């Protein structure tokens, strides 16, 4: 990892990744991560904490985190797997499976091959998800 792209906030143990950063290899962070807008990850993004992925960011591999908020207009070519809750914001594209052991929120115009969670899934507006499975309930609202 290039230190010019990543800073660490010592009090909270949060990694802050500057906007427009790019990473050629897998990124593995031992703590929370806040990713600026339009960052490119050419491998997997693994966070041992909470992840906030900035608007327009791209991950060519998989995303793994405790909890995650995936910003608007993001593209994940692989799968997303979180231990807690997952939020997919407007126009996010997931090439594979979006999975959460907790609850999931899906905003309008999200595209994914599948969405599964152990808790509740809240879908707002029109989406393009081929398969949705919820452990408890599925709540659908019009946009």
Question: How would you describe the overall organization of this protein?
Answer:
By secondary structure, the protein is mainly beta. It has one domain (28-141). Helix content is 0%, strand content 53%. The protein is built from no helices and 20 strands. Strands 3, 4, 6, 7, 9, 10, 12, 13, 15, 17 and 19 form an 11-stranded parallel sheet that branches. The chain has a 9-stranded mixed sheet with strand order 1-2-5-8-11-14-16-18-20, with no helix packed on it. A hairpin with a 4-residue loop joins strand 1 (6-9) and strand 2 (14-17). The model has no long low-confidence stretch (mean pLDDT 95).
Summary keywords:
143 residues; mainly beta; 9-stranded mixed sheet
The string of secondary-structure elements, in order, is EEEEEEEEEEEEEEEEEEEE
Q: Approximately how much helix is present in the residues? A: under 10%
Q: Radius of gyration in whole Å, from Cα?
A: 14 Å
Number of domains: 1
Q: Judging from the principal axes of the Cα atoms, what is the shape?
A: globular
* Helical run tally: 0
Mean pLDDT: 95
Largest sheet: 11 strands, parallel
What's the total number of strands?
Answer: 20
Question: How far do the termini sit from each other?
Answer: 40 Å
Structural class: mainly beta
Content of β-strand = over 45%
* Low-pLDDT residue intervals, each spanning 5 or more residues: none
């Amino acid at each position: 990892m290039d230190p010019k792209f990543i800073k660490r906030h010592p009090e909270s143990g949060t990694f802050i990744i500057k906007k427009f950063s790019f990473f050629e290899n897998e990124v593995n962070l031992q703590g929370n991560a806040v990713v600026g807008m339009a960052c490119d990850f050419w491998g997997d993004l693994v966070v041992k904490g909470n992840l906030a992925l900035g608007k327009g960011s791209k991950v060519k591999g998989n995303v793994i985190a405790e909890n995650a908020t995936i910003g608007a207009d993001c593209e994940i070519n692989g799968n997303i797997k979180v231990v807690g809750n997952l939020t997919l914001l407007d126009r996010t594209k997931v090439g594979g499976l979006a999975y959460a052991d907790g609850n999931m929120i899906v905003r309008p115009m999200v595209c994914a091959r599948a969405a599964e969670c152990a808790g509740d899934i809240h879908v707002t507006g029109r989406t393009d998800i081929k398969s949705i499975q919820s452990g408890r309930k599925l709540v659908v609202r019009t946009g």
